[in-house]
Design brief:
- By secondary structure, the protein is an all-alpha fold.
- The chain has one domain.
- 90% of the residues lie in helices and 0% in strands.
- The longest helix is centred in the C-terminal third of the chain and has 39 residues.
- The model has no long low-confidence stretch (mean pLDDT 90).
Length: 86
């Protein structure tokens, strides 16, 4: 992302994303709690399953972050295109 896109993204992340996450807050909270529970179960199985679970979690978080950024950039692009249609 460019510096401008990064600044807009950080603003949106802080001020706008919570509004759009709110309708799904309970589902998101349940999913996080379940993920934490499953992580504890994996760690209880031993060192190797625990490490594998942590690596999986990291990869899923990375994937989600890039997907979120891509959706943001797509929305920004649509907004810019609509602005040019005026």
């Amino acid at each position: 992302m460019t510096e401008l896109q990064e600044a807009i993204y950080l603003y949106a992340r802080e001020h706008l994303f919570p509004r759009f996450e709110a309708p799904n807050y309970e589902t998101l909270s349940q999913a996080r709690r379940e993920a934490e529970r499953l992580g504890k179960e994996l760690r209880a199985l031993g060192e190797e399953p625990g490490k594998c679970g942590r690596r999986l979690w990291t990869q899923l978080e990375t994937q989600a972050a890039f997907e979120q950024e891509a959706v943001f950039l797509a929305g920004l692009s649509i907004g810019l295109e609509l602005g040019e249609l005026r």
